[in-house]
């Protein structure tokens, strides 16, 4: 009788484990125009490409829920997250924000506390687990037709903002994925820029995804 109960317990435990493994982890992508993939098709957005790549890699991940609007600064994203009344149930949360703070002439110093608050929100939404969160660096739009005339100025400012968000991210023990160098290939490789002459193309986002997947699999990212 004891042996039968023991075997039944094992079977139930195995079934529970299988059921748990079959449930897709929820993916929340927080950001702005880069996260919603301005000027590219939905399938070419990097969160969509990432979910597909992780699925193909054997990971159970749902299609992303994206909270992002073109033109959003850190304060606007924070307000949107609060208004969405999200549950702390996400197995993967990404954060990419700051380009509009820079574009609208906000300082990296004023950006810092707002970014840190957003990152803490991301951790909370990721079931309180830092390992479920990653930050993506801000792309450099100076290497697009839109920003080319001010490339030096833009690149310097983007570096300052990325130095800020990277420092905060690493201090908080969260994964950081640096993709800014890839976006600096936009002028010599026009196929990496979307039709609007400003945002990344699906091909560029695919390169981001390669780095993100490597990072999620434990490969370190070097700047």
Question: What would you note in describing this structure?
Answer:
By secondary structure, this protein is of the alpha/beta class. The protein has a single domain (24-216), classed as 3-Layer(aba) Sandwich (Rossmann fold), CATH 3.40.50. Helices cover 49% and strands 9% of the residues. It is built from 9 helices and 5 strands; from the N terminus they run αβααβαβααβαβαα. The chain has helices at residues 2-22, 33-36, 46-56, 74-84, 99-103, 108-125, 151-171, 180-183, 202-216, and strands at residues 27-31, 65-68, 92-95, 133-136, 175-177. Strands 2-1-3-4-5 form a 5-stranded parallel β-sheet, with helices on both faces. Strand 4 (133-136), helix 7 and strand 5 form a beta-alpha-beta unit. The radius of gyration is 19 Å and the shape is globular. It starts with a helix and ends in a 7-residue tail after the last helix. The model is unreliable at 2-21 (pLDDT under 50).
